[in-house]
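Notes from hallway chat w/ T.B., transcribed later so I don't forget. T.B. wanted the structure written out for a chain they're using in a teaching module, and asked if we could keep both sequence and structure tokens in one place. Agreed to drop them here.
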Amino acid sequence: MHKFEEELKIDPSDPEKQRWFGMRQLWNDWDPIGVVSEDIQDEYDWYVAPTLKLLDDGCSAGEIEAYLTSIVRDYIGLGEDGVRGSNPGAFARKIMDWYEEKKRYD
């Protein structure tokens, strides 16, 4: 069995794990570097918990966009072209919508 298939066996009674993997999937769908594949699912794992913390702390879309922009431009090193190409503002809104939806059903 592939590593990712193992990870998908999430205990339905563990909402924190579900939340973490949900955010991981959002990062993988966004994939600002363009490297996620069946074999590479953990590229953005370092950003999952900090992103969830920003949401839990009630940060605004603008604050989350600034965090994402910094990650893409400075930490990953894609510069301003990478920021324009990845559209962190749209991703910030997407994860905020996801977070609000999760809160409604939890």
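Follow-up for T.B.: The helical segments are 3-7, 15-30, 45-56, 61-75, 79-86, 88-105. Might be a good example for the class.
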